[in-house]
Each structure stands twice: as structure tokens, then as C-alpha cells.
Design brief:
275 residues, mainly beta, Jelly Rolls, 2 domains, seven-stranded antiparallel sheet, five-stranded antiparallel sheet, 4% helix, 50% strand
Length: 275
Amino acid sequence: MATKVPLIFSFPSDPTSTTKVLPAIGVHELNFMSRGVLYSDNTGDQMGSGLQNTAYNSIESFTIYSSQSIKIQLISTVPGHERQSDWIEVAARSRRTLNGVSFDIMRISSVVAGTQIAIVASTLPDTQFSAFMESISVVNPAYIIASVPTVDFLAGLALNAQATANLVGLTDNTVTITGITVISVQQLHYQVMLYKKDTFLPADFCASIDADLASYGAAVGASYVMDITKEDDLYIDLDSTQELHVALVNRDAAAKNAGAAGAVTLVFKYEPRRA
């Protein structure tokens, strides 16, 4: 007898690639009943199984990963089975798997701009789903440290001017930077510079990352987003405070606005590493 395999949806569409960035704070709604396509009402992005002509009654199993603490709510709009769950907590840098649920809409409440999520969902409450999830690398806990757009890099910046921030929360004083996501209200050319101390002296310079959103930034809602993969950049906090000492430099002829009109969020991916 053939084994019944659950139909799999993913957000983003390639579950082995990367997480999806939620650039805004607030409630994001995912709808699983649009002709077999999982999509985000906030961004208009479409992704999923690619089965464009079939509608499914409900999702029965899923795993969600989040870089920051979030809450999710599951809603069923299937006639005769309308209901919604309480808000469910998902801890930062963790994944949560639920089987035997039945819903077609998921609401995600995020309180940190730049939160990255990944979801893999199935239309069947199949026991194979949990085993399948163990092989999907994107939902393994990742290490993320991010700036806060209402606190960090608020100053207006002319050409070659910089603003600095000390991002708290590294798991170690020695880490490997593996990637960065830049989210900006303005489509400008930035340079992100890392320093080993919070004095930001030239002698303590560690690494530089070119973030040319003017040329390569993708429009996502009201912001511009750029993902950059790094080749194992070693970072050492010589202050031993488990902080990432970051300078944001404007390399664009156009000025970076002050405040919310020029908000920038930097989301760093890293791995712990012994010195």
C-alpha cells in the first residue's frame, strides 16, 4: 500500500534557502486558500506549492521558525468550522511544530522590525510531517542580532557621515557573521562597518559590508530590503560585552533623513565561534 505523503507549502517558497523578512511591526496575515498558493496580504508576494488551480480546505500541520519572539493566531473560515485560536507564543530563535490543527489563515504579530520567519505547512496531519521537518535546515535555530529602527541610526546623514550603535545580545564575544539584511525607508547606498570596541577607532576596525540599496534594494511595502551573504567574517568584541559595534555610513549623494523618514534596520545572522 502506498504511503500517503502530505502536500507541503512553504514560506518562503524554497524552504532550503532563507527566511522571509517582515519589515514592519504589527500583524501580518497569511492566507493558505488562494488556489493552492500561500501568500502574504502585506507584501503581495506569492509563494508556495505552485498548484494554481486547486483550493484546499485547511492546513493540518505546520512548523514555524522565528528570529524574534512573535505570537501567532490560527483561523478557520471553512463553512461550518469557523473558529480562531488564542494567540500562541513562539520564542526567539526557535521553532514550533503543531499537528492535528485545522486552519486556513495564520496571523503573525511581530514587535521587532526585521523579524525573519520560515513556515512549512501541510494539508494532512501525517506523522511523516515531523520527520520531514527535521531535514529542513531553514527551521533550525539561527542566531540573529538586530538594530531597533526607533532607537538606532536615527540621525540624518550627509554623504560619508556615519551613525553608530552597540547592538546588545551576542551569545559570545567571538562570532562568525554569516549574513546581513538591510531594511531602509530610503533607497540609498550604505556601508556597514564593524568595530571591535565601542570607541569606533580606526585601529579597532574589523569588517566592512557594502549595502548598495540604491542599485540592488528590493521594494517591500514602504521599505527597501537587501540580503547580503557573508563568507565567514570573524568578529571579536574586545570590550567583552557581547555587543556588535556597528557604524552605518551614508555613501549616497542624497542625504539620509533623520527619524522615521530615514529609518534603517540592520539584521545580522551569525554563528558562535571560539577565539
